[in-house]
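Human: Can I borrow your eye for a moment on a structure tokenisation matter? Separate attempts, laid side by side, tell us more than any discussion would. Could you pick a protein and write out its sequence and tokenised fold? No explanation is needed for now; the record alone will do.

Assistant:
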Amino acid sequence: MTQDHHARGGAAVGVLNSMEAWEANLVLNLRLWCEGPCGQQQVWNEYRKAMPGKCARDECRAFENLIGTLVANAIRPLVRHEVGCSCVGADECVFLHLVRCAADGHLNDAALMATLIVGPSNAEQIALLAGQVGTCARRIHSSPPEYSTDTAPNVVRLH
């Protein structure tokens, strides 16, 4: 693959501060998760803080499965921006639209969007996971967290 091939997936197509809170947080969680164990722990902590134990575990596992399936089956490496970057890249935007579409109940459209990242054999599974992840992300941001822990919140300063 050429450098131009990677650049297409990272081309800035939006900014985080123009999105709904749940959408921006979803992009940040994608970035954090892909950073490795430290970022993954931050994502887990956010889920634990937002909902009770088993529910948090199940919902975060769905997020983990979604990202894992996307990364493992991607037709090319996914390109993402740094955690603190305010831009949203093309691959991140496709991910966001996929999750939003699935959460809105448009699973066929979401599966079609998934084929922009993975082959068609995984598209339906990804659409179903994306629907669960999107519904949870919206629920987390629709009301204040009820379940607090002493862990630091998943906050990233953009500027």
